[in-house]
Design a protein that fits this description.
Number of strands: 19
Structural class: alpha/beta
Strand order of the largest sheet: 5-4-13-14-15-12-17-16
Number of helices: 14
Shape: globular
Strand content: 25-35%
Largest sheet: 8 strands, mixed
């Protein structure tokens, strides 16, 4: 099938989950898209992510879910256990409830598998999407009619829209708003994956399992149909320099941080081949996400702490809302659009609408993630009584408290 060249050209900076989802959402609404990725190749450090129903529904609407499902794991429940003894605090059914209540499954997926599914979807013959690796962007320039990405090489790539989906160290954000200093949360996360065949009797349960303790916590779940165990283990630190989730640590240090913890946690740490340390930094919500024909998306404008497992999903939601608002603006000016034209203010107006929709929601998720980070690091006798009550005596209340998050539907 021959692709018809669109007069609408979007430049997306960053080929992570947010950037590729944006390219796909825009491509499916008729945009020609160029994705500029700094790295020489698309690749990810091995890690799992949790996709809640609000994000899964978007992936389904974009034609990604069918490609992704064979690689996923569907947890039976969400549960909490005490980190040292392994005693269960609560267990709440999730697999059936997610579909019945929120309209889509709750999935665990390897980040690389999600990227592969998005890449495959963007490569469909009907979409005019070009991915360029080794294309580092240093800034942008614009006038009322056009925006241009300026690459480190001096090359210039112009279009009618530029999306900064270039992550927590966003060059586009810094160009728009100036460099901002993040705040170290005092938390550092270990991230590992291990084939379950290595773990013997210490395989993590088939759930999204939170292990809590004083000054530290861990989360275990399975990936790739249950064949791979994923662990994120968070410990408190007084200070840290450098904001990266690809820094390597040692098995010895990881085990020392969780000495005396339940064998399900320590066995995964012991059997892992690589131990990555992710220092967790926080940023206050940005007041401004747009500059004329430029918009920020995902971690570039609302980096998420991992304690609500919403980082990837918020970027996926962003992408769909951005494409929806641009399409709505197009329909309002359909007469001009048929001629390949647009009013000068159409794109900036759509971007402002996108930001106005997304900012309150992402700020609420950021706040909820912060609160969970504080709550998880408790180990007193009565510290988790409220959660025990919700999980054991009133699971319907627990589910209802998540309706705003998992039941949310993008416009």
């Amino acid at each position: 099938m021959e692709t018809r060249r669109s007069t609408k050209h979007a430049v997306v900076v960053g080929a992570g989950i947010g950037g590729l989802t944006t390219a796909l959402a825009l491509g499916r609404t008729g945009w020609r898209v160029t994705v500029l990725e700094r790295a020489a190749a698309i690749g990810e450090i091995g890690a799992g992510i949790q996709l809640s129903p609000n994000g899964v529904r978007v992936l389904s609407s974009l034609g990604v879910l069918d490609r992704l499902l064979p690689t996923t794991f569907r947890p039976e429940a969400v549960e909490m256990r005490l980190g040292r003894s392994g005693r269960r605090v609560f267990r709440i059914e999730l697999a059936g409830t997610a579909v019945r209540r929120w309209g889509a499954p709750y999935l665990h997926v390897h980040r690389a598998d999600l990227l592969d599914a998005l890449l495959a979807a963007t490569a469909d013959s009907g979409l005019d999407i070009t991915l360029r690796t080794g294309s580092a962007v240093r800034g942008y320039e614009q006038d009322p009619e056009r925006v241009t990405a300026v690459l480190d090489s001096g090359e210039r790539v112009g279009g009618s829209l530029l999306v900064g989906a270039d992550g927590i160290h966003s060059v586009i954000r810094d160009r728009m708003l100036g460099a901002g200093e993040p705040r170290f949360t005092g938390h550092v996360a270990w991230r590992v994956t291990v084939p379950v065949e290595r773990l013997g009797h210490d395989v993590p349960p088939p759930t999204a399992c939170l292990w809590v303790g004083e000054g530290r916590h861990a989360i275990t779940y399975r990936l790739r149909g249950g064949a791979l165990a994923n662990l994120v283990a968070v410990v408190e630190r007084d200070a840290w320099r450098g904001e990266s989730w690809t820094e390597r640590g040692t098995r010895q240090d990881a085990l020392a941080d969780f000495e005396g913890w339940h064998p399900t946690v320590t066995t995964v740490l012991r059997e892992a081949d690589a131990h990555y340390r992710w220092a967790l930094f926080d940023r206050e919500p940005l007041e401004n996400w747009t500059d004329g024909r430029v918009a920020l998306l995902g971690d570039a404008c609302h980096p998420m702490l991992p304690y609500l497992a919403q980082g990837a999903t918020m970027a996926i939601e962003d992408a769909q809302v951005l494409a929806d608002r641009l399409e709505a603006q197009r329909l309002e000016t359909q007469g001009l659009e048929a001629q390949g034209l647009e009013r000068p203010g159409d794109v900036p107006r759509a971007l402002r609408s996108y930001a106005a929709i997304r900012q309150p929601r992402t700020a609420r998720v950021q706040a909820g993630s912060r609160e969970n980070g504080r709550r998880f690091h408790q180990d007193g006798r009565f510290a988790h009584v409220p959660l025990w009550f919700l999980g054991t005596l009133a699971p319907h209340v627990y589910h209802r408290r998540l309706d705003w998050l998992y039941g949310h539907r993008v416009p």
